[in-house]
Amino acid sequence: MSKKATFLPMNLSLAPFLLVLLYHLLSCVAVHGVQEKKILSLHNNIWSPRKSYEAPSSCFSHNLGKGRESSTTLKMKHRELCSGKTIDWGKKLRRALTLDNLRVQSLQLRIKAMSSTTTESISEAQIPLTSGMTLQTLNYIVTVDLGGRNMTLIVDTGSDLTWVQCQPCKSCYNQEGPLYDPSVSSSYKTVFCNSSTCQDLVAATGNSGLCGGDNGVDKTTCDYVVSYGDGSYTRGNLGSESIQLGDTKVESFVFGCGRSNKGLFGGASGLMGLGRSSVSLVSQTLKNFNGVFSYCLPSLEDGASGSLSFGEDSSVYKNTTSVSYTPLVQNPQLSSFYVLNLTGASIGGVDLESSSFGGGILIDSGTVITRLPPSIYKAVKTEFLKQFSGFPSAPSYSILDTCFNLTSYEDVSIPTIKMIFQGNAELEVDVTGVFYFVKPDASLVCLALASLSYENDVGILGNYQQKNQRVIYDTKQEKLGIAGENCSF
Ligand SMILES: *[C@@H]1O[C@H](CO)[C@@H](O)[C@H](O)[C@H]1NC(C)=O
Ligand SMILES: *[C@@H]1O[C@H](CO)[C@@H](O)[C@H](O)[C@H]1NC(C)=O
Ligand SMILES: *[C@@H]1O[C@H](CO)[C@@H](O)[C@H](O)[C@H]1NC(C)=O
Ligand SMILES: *[C@@H]1O[C@H](CO)[C@@H](O)[C@H](O)[C@H]1NC(C)=O
Ligand SMILES: *[C@@H]1O[C@H](CO)[C@@H](O)[C@H](O)[C@H]1NC(C)=O
After folding, report:
1. Quick check: 129 pLDDT over 60?
2. pLDDT score of 62
3. Longest alpha-carbon distance in the chain
4. Which residues are the active-site residues?
């Protein structure tokens, strides 16, 4: 299969294991009669007790990316693989579900607040103020050069302001590598609180910029606060600095110099905001990249790297199927999100029926499990159980209610899941995106999709189902492209 050729192992200690996994994943893809199925190997995951896997001591700041004139590509890693510690996978995988649920609850509250017709301002205590939300579940990181120093940032399409932890710091969490220090950078400039950038902050963060005076910085600075649904926050002042994304240098990039930051950011220096408001990295680099970026999210079980690309040069994509496009839905009430129109779905080649198709669904790099309106979820579950029959069932876990005990199986043949978007754009969920391993020994493996509480809640396309796809955000032409890709860098 030609698929093999595009998949380049990046870490020698992983190579033998990857080859075995590859063999299993790729050589076994098959179509049986009418029902389309794929083979999943249950005990070749990084977290399987039957495998020995050693986490790399670090994957920070090794590769700053590559590019050409109008485009650039950054290496993207799964954050879990960078801790350098022995990982208790069972605990990690289960905790991730709890956190994911918090993020989604916060997103739904925020959406309800934005869609409510009252013009009354929303109390800070009740409503999470921005979309970044529970950052613990934001799993993908890239390294960029900010003012001459390498910074590792969590990638988030659901929020706007890019920030890093900054010296002097009042309260910072532990990060790998030194904090950014504006006092030793000749290209750092303060953003004043009388500037329009400062005034625009309210759209990006839910909080208006304030004239500073905290932490020994003078009163003309623009202070920002980004608070998240779970109690995490970053607080500091806006600055501008040159940022280098791969080969492309962008001068006077506005970012948050975080003097007080709290949350489980996993050793990262900060966060890269790829949302839609004027302060987001996408908007600030419009001249360089024309509002286009794309990513390939690697699957954790492969231990592979993915990539984050800026610009329109499609020759950097390693797509294995052709790119299909769907319009980005214009919804003024969800203006800071990327929204798609989910028009259908199929399980093992069987099309599903639901009156809830044709509604908007957010695409988010920070939510893990895809959430579907109850009627669509029910149709998916019913057809999946019909085709994936004869396997011992297991109790529900957290938000996941279609579970199996598969310990005694080596490989299972699972129905393919496809989601169809307006314009017939198609996402075929990767074989690693169908089941979530609640227990690493496969004794509790669940369909990695969940139901929303209410039919009119807004669906979310999570990162688990976006793995091994090239997802292209074109904010200029208001469209999103999807193609299959085996992520590599
Ligand atoms: C940043 O990373 C690049 C690529 O690995 C390396 O060449 C460079 O020395 C690093 N810069 C600093 C300041 O550490
Ligand atoms: C904003 O404040 C700075 C610092 O006090 C000042 O130098 C600048 O002239 C002001 N700009 C405007 C547009 O008022
Ligand atoms: C990748 O996508 C482009 C654009 O749709 C297409 O022309 C090309 O054939 C695709 N590559 C593969 C291997 O399908
Ligand atoms: C989604 O697409 C369908 C079919 O093209 C259309 O009827 C419907 O109005 C669209 N929904 C939204 C939210 O744009
Ligand atoms: C799962 O199945 C295996 C054998 O099929 C059995 O030994 C084990 O007890 C089951 N585990 C759970 C948690 O039910």
Report:
1. no
2. 45
3. 71
4. 156, 364
- Using the predicted structure, report yes or no on whether residue 66 has a pLDDT greater than 80: no
Alpha carbon 226 to its chain centroid, in Å, reads: 19
User: Which residues does 61 contact at the CB level (< 8 Å), separation at least 6?
Assistant: 143, 150, 152, 177
CA angle at 445 for the pair 441 and 449, rounded to the nearest 5°: 150
Q: pTM for the full model?
A: 0.85
The reply to whether domains 2-58+317-484 and 66-296 share a CATH topology is yes
pLDDT bin (cut points 50, 70, 90) of residue 453 is very high
Ligand number nearest CA of 222 is 2
Highest averaged pLDDT of the listed ranges 28-42, 138-152, 453-467: 453-467
For atom 1 of ligand 4, the residue with the nearest CA is: 358
Instruction: Name which residue sits closest to atom 12 of ligand 2, judged by CA.
Output: 194
CATH number 2.40.70.10 given to 2-58+317-484 = yes
66-296: which CATH topology?
Answer: Cathepsin D, subunit A; domain 1 (2.40.70)
Pull the structure tokens for residue 66.
């590559």
Which atom of ligand 4 is found nearest the CA of 360? 13
Spans of all domains in the chain? 2-58+317-484, 66-296
For residues 278 and 60, is the Cβ–Cβ distance under 8 A? Answer: no
